[in-house]
Amino acid sequence: MQPTDGVASAPSRLVLPDGRVLSSPLLATARALVVGDWVFTGGRPAQIVDLRSRHDGGRVVHLRGRPPLRLSIRDQLAVYQYVSG
After folding, report:
1. Is 12 exposed, middle or buried (0-12, 13-18, 19+ CB in 10 A)?
2. DSSP 8-state class, residue 8
3. Could you tell me the pLDDT band of residue 37, with boundaries at 50, 70 and 90?
4. Strand partners, 39
5. Closest CA to 41 of 53, 56, 24, 25
């Protein structure tokens, strides 16, 4: 799976099943991602559960319940900010 969605295609606000609210997605590079971040890819949100470095400077991003993403050093994902919960 490759990243294909940017901030323009990401909803500006998401409510997670546990009631937490995510808002204001911002583009982040592979190096800026951290475990626990919520990203928007493949048309829906997913939480990062593991990050692995690649020899070329990119990362393999493991998402809860989804196939891993292979990001180059220049790829970006829409990352959500917690608003409440």
Report:
1. exposed
2. G
3. very high
4. 46, 79
5. 25
